[in-house]
Design brief:
By secondary structure, the protein is an alpha/beta fold. Helix content is 30%, strand content 23%. It is built from seven helices and ten strands. The protein has a five-stranded parallel beta sheet, with helices on both faces. Strands 6-7-10-8-9 form a five-stranded mixed beta sheet, sandwiched between helices. α3 packs across α4 and α6 packs across α7 (178-187). The longest helix is centred in the middle third of the chain and has 20 residues, at 69-88. The model is unreliable at 229-233 (pLDDT under 50).
């Protein structure tokens, strides 16, 4: 009988923000899989490091950080093949994923490759958006208000159009796109409505008004923007 694949959301980085279910599954794991930037330590593994049992087999997927899709897809092909062998041998596999597996999560690529052949369960995790809002003390939506989520790599014109038509905005994957995004928000006259959050929930966390944000941003950074009055009033 084949094993079961679990896509386990770990939350934004603070191990205390893992769910009880995630903690229990990882603690009982015989096989753990996770992505890592090629040649670097895995952020996902670092979140769960104190819970992974001694002796658990670890499947590491070295995923290159590149704008080209082919190298990353090849890494997920290889990882899916290794996970499939473990599942066929009857072992459950716990796949670790920062944040939530189905919200910009790496696990969705494995799900696409394996869900038709094996039983899969997705364990949701605390998202970076809700964490950033909490750390910034910034409610994002109330009543009938809409929250728009945008990826930072979008072209400048599209960012402008989508921000103009939005009420509250979360811009993810800021990183090297910070200058472009900041320029769009400034041109729209909305800088005073925006907050910059970097590495939310981690010891090196940064929360600043966008006007005071650094010149360079890491990949794990976000800009939150609300246009209206305080939504909790």
């Amino acid at each position: 009988m084949s094993g079961k694949l679990y896509g386990v959301g770990l939350g934004p980085g603070d191990p205390e923000l893992m769910t009880l279910r995630a903690h229990r599954l990882i603690k009982g794991a015989r096989v753990v899989a996770y992505p890592a930037l090629a040649g670097a330590a895995s952020f996902a593994r670092s979140i769960a490091a104190d819970v992974i049992p001694d002796g658990a087999r670890e499947i590491v997927m070295d995923v290159p950080m590149s704008v080209e899709r082919a190298p990353a897809q090849a890494a997920y092909d290889k990882g899916a093949a290794e996970i499939a062998l473990a599942l066929e041998a009857g072992d459950d596999v716990i796949c670790l994923c920062e944040g939530d597996p189905f919200f910009y999560g790496s696990f969705m690529y494995l799900f696409a490759r394996l869900s038709e052949r094996f039983q899969v369960e997705v364990v949701p995790g605390v998202t970076s958006i809700t964490t950033c809002a909490a750390r910034a003390g910034m409610p994002l939506a109330a009543r009938n208000e809409r929250l728009t989520v945008l990826p930072g790599p979008l072209p400048e014109d599209e960012l402008r159009m989508r921000i103009e038509g939005a009420e509250s905005v979360a811009i993810m994957k800021v990183g090297r796109h910070l200058t472009k995004i900041r320029g769009v928000i400034e041109a729209l006259g909305l800088t005073s409505h925006a907050v910059y959050v970097e590495r939310a929930s981690l010891p090196e966390e940064v929360v600043l008004p966008l006007a005071d944000a650094p010149e360079k941003a890491p990949y794990f950074s976000m800009i939150l923007l609300t246009k209206g009055a305080d939504p909790w009033l």
